[in-house]
Write a structure and sequence with these properties.
343 residues, rod-shaped, 0% strand, mainly alpha, DUF3080
């Protein structure tokens, strides 16, 4: 009889290319900035797409099945695991969603653990009692890998990194409370899965996974950061091309107020909104991944290259650095063109 957790998930990632509006925001700003600085506007370059999420065999754990004979399981019938195992091994159980496999593993371990500390264990003969101890211990040791597989085997999670996604437009930078609540629940469920005082709830879990299914937020955030960073770096090079040590680089300083109004009314609100959203989302993803007790090398590499909050070459820090450099360029421009306004 199989007691193991087996993952076999077919990924179907969907999405549409977005970001025309935000790209137009940046390119219009670049053109106006280039005209004010009397330099050539940059050639339109496309930001690189995010890397493909690792394949199943690189991101999931191979958890060995635990096989016990029917008579051996029958000896543990008072532990009430026979029907649970049978449901897991039937046709519907084999094709259940990763989240349901996780719930099965949790329920199985909890029943084994409760039985181990009950009067039932005292009534078992020595061989069956040792079998019960071994099953409970093995399942506990497998739970970190089971919860990892449940997360990284789910379409909701892998779909969040769909390369078919586009950057977020200005009107989509609101705080994704439902999706953030989903990450928080997954974090709690993972951290407390071996805590008998905390009870997972199937309907709550499915509701949160549904929220993650609504939008591929991880990919959208990363692609937004990629686009914004590229456009800011291009704008920064415009400043560099026109920069002088002390004099105002504008032939007509009268263009400055209108350009500054565009920055204040359009560009800066977008950058601030993206900073809040990306910081919240990537921070929540980082917290969820940090609570995992196991990991795979392919995921470690992906985290470092794309999700890290500290890696200077990852999208988040590159965006912050480009934005800070752009702010400093504006500060110098305002100072050199004899204005008291703050950028």
């Amino acid at each position: 009889m199989r007691l193991g957790l087996i993952m076999a998930v077919t990924l179907t990632l969907t999405g549409c290319e977005r970001g025309t509006e935000v790209n137009a925001l940046f390119t219009d700003y670049q053109q106006r900035l280039a005209a004010a600085l009397e330099v050539d506007p940059p050639a339109s370059a496309s930001p690189a797409n995010i890397a493909a999420f690792p394949e199943d065999d690189a991101r999931l754990f191979d958890i060995p099945d635990i096989r016990e004979g029917m008579l051996d399981i029958y000896a543990l019938r008072e532990c009430q695991i026979a029907a649970l195992v049978a449901n897991r091994n039937n046709q519907l159980g084999k094709v259940a969603a990763p989240s349901q496999h996780w719930l099965y593993e949790l329920k199985l371990w909890r029943r084994l653990e409760a039985c181990r500390h009950s009067a039932v264990a005292k009534r078992l003969d020595e061989e069956d009692r040792q079998r019960l101890e071994r099953l409970a211990r093995t399942k506990a040791e497998q739970m970190p890998m089971a919860s990892w597989n449940a997360l990284f085997g789910s379409e909701e999670w892998t779909g969040s990194f769909s390369r078919a996604s586009g950057p977020l437009p200005p009107d989509a930078l609101t705080r994704p409370d439902d999706a953030l609540a989903a990450l928080a629940y997954l974090r709690t469920m993972t951290a407390r899965q071996l805590d008998p005082d905390w009870q997972p709830d199937s309907s709550t879990l499915e509701q949160h996974l549904k929220a993650l299914r609504e939008e591929p937020l991880s990919a959208q955030v990363l692609r937004s950061l990629q686009l914004a960073t590229l456009r800011l770096e291009e704008a920064n090079r415009l400043f560099d091309a026109a920069d002088t040590e002390s004099s105002c680089p504008l032939a007509d300083a009268g263009r400055l107020p209108a350009l500054r109004t565009q920055v204040d009314d359009e560009l800066r609100p977008y950058l601030e909104g993206l900073t809040r959203l990306a910081g919240s989302w990537l921070g929540a993803v980082e917290t969820l991944l940090n609570v995992q007790q196991v990991s795979r090398e392919a995921i470690d590499d992906y985290r470092h290259n794309w999700l890290s909050l500290d890696n200077p070459e990852a999208p988040w820090q590159r965006f912050l650095n480009a934005r800070e450099a752009h702010r400093q360029h504006w500060q110098r421009l305002m100072r050199r063109c004899s204005t008291d306004e703050e950028p």
